[in-house]
Design goal:
- There is one protein chain.
- The protein is of the alpha+beta class.
- The chain has two domains: 164 residues, DD-peptidase/beta-lactamase superfamily (Beta-lactamase); 131 residues, Probable Glutaminase Ybgj, Chain: A, domain 2 (Orthogonal Bundle).
- It has a five-stranded antiparallel sheet. A two-stranded antiparallel sheet has the order 3-4.
- A hairpin with a 4-residue loop joins strand 5 and strand 6.
- Helix 5 crosses helix 8.
- The structure holds 6-diazenyl-5-OXO-L-norleucine.
- The site of 6-diazenyl-5-OXO-L-norleucine has 12 residues, from loops.
Length: 310
């Protein structure tokens, strides 16, 4: 690192980046997300063993949305192994929006391009083992609890229901994939689980800790216990680099160079290999569904502290 990363510097960087919140809008296609304050920007940086610094309104809670795709992929890979998971979902980035159906129709066989877009994530959620929706969700939440050392984390029923009531595009993706044998079972049950997984509610501290475990090759920062096997942590980081910021992933890799995953709540989780977990919340989004000010904040953090992996 070029200079020491302290709270004062972090505060200054948040104030600077906050200006960019004006360039974005809060997502409202999930009605409950539309209630967020577009001017908010907060960040937590976790460096292991209780070392955490933060700036902004860091106790504010928000939902993981697409960041949950990384966690669910980890569970599916631990449940089934790479061969099975990647027989149903690909490994390639896409230049299309996160909720696009286009490639499902044009690609033969119909297989979602990667697990970070909605189609791929729905196919992955469909693989989670469990007798009931509660049991499946419980297994996803257990991993979140272990990674954050916070057993209180649960999902927000209001946000989950708001998405379930309006998820017509995701329903279409599911039915299309069911027709082609990519997903099995009852579509409404899959959507029920998916919307709950997306509505898992955290704060910036929790998010930074999730990012840290992935950065730390899957190990718990306190006990060094392997929570996620090393080879799976590597797969997660790689998808975060190639597909984590959707159709902005290439530009983000050049400008920031930190494995990261965004969600339409305005959250971004960053994993700087072997060192730092980052949790950001800034609900004003650009037209690709990424937090505008959050990305600016990561850009200045990366250049100031030389954090790019490239
Ligand atoms: O499926 C959806 O549309 C949302 N639950 C998650 C999308 C999302 O977070 C995309 N990220 N930028």
């Amino acid at each position: 690192m070029k200079q020491s990363l302290d709270v004062e510097t972090l505060n200054t960087m948040v104030v600077e980046a906050k200006k960019y919140t004006k360039e974005g809008v809060v997502a409202d296609y999930i009605p409950a997300l539309g209630e967020a304050n577009p001017e908010t920007l907060s960040i937590a940086i976790y460096r292991g063993k209780g070392d955490c610094i933060a700036a902004g309104n860091i106790r504010e809670k928000f939902t993981l949305q697409s960041i949950s795709k990384v966690i669910t992929l980890a569970v599916a890979l631990m449940d089934h192994g790479e061969e099975y998971v990647f027989s149903k979902v690909g490994m390639e980035p896409t230049g299309d929006p996160f909720n696009s159906i286009a490639k499902l129709e044009s690609n033969v066989p119909s297989k979602p391009l990667n697990p970070m877009i909605n189609a791929g994530a729905l196919a992955v959620t469909n693989m989670i083992i469990g007798e009931t929706i509660d049991e499946k969700l419980g297994r996803i939440l257990s991993l979140v609890h272990e990674m954050t050392c916070n057993p209180e984390i649960t999902y927000c029923e209001r946000v989950a229901k708001s998405e379930l009531d309006t998820a017509f595009l995701n329903r279409s993706l599911c039915y299309f994939m069911k027709q082609h044998g990519v997903v099995k079972g009852v579509v409404e049950e899959l959507l029920n689980l998916y919307t709950k997984q997306c509505a898992i509610q955290v704060d910036c501290y929790d998010l930074a800790k999730l990012g840290y475990v992935i950065a730390n090759d899957g190990k718990n920062p306190n006990t060094e216990r392997q929570i996620i096997p090393l080879h799976i942590a590597r797969i997660l980081k790689t998808f975060m680099v190639t597909c984590g910021m959707y159709n902005s992933s290439g530009e983000f890799a050049i400008k920031v160079g930190i494995p990261a995953k965004s969600g339409v709540s305005g959250a971004i989780m960053g994993s700087v290999p072997h060192g730092i977990g980052v949790g950001i919340y800034g609900p004003a989004l650009d037209d690709r569904g990424n937090s505008v000010a959050g990305m600016k904040l990561l850009e200045s953090l990366s250049s100031r502290y030389d954090l790019s992996i490239f």
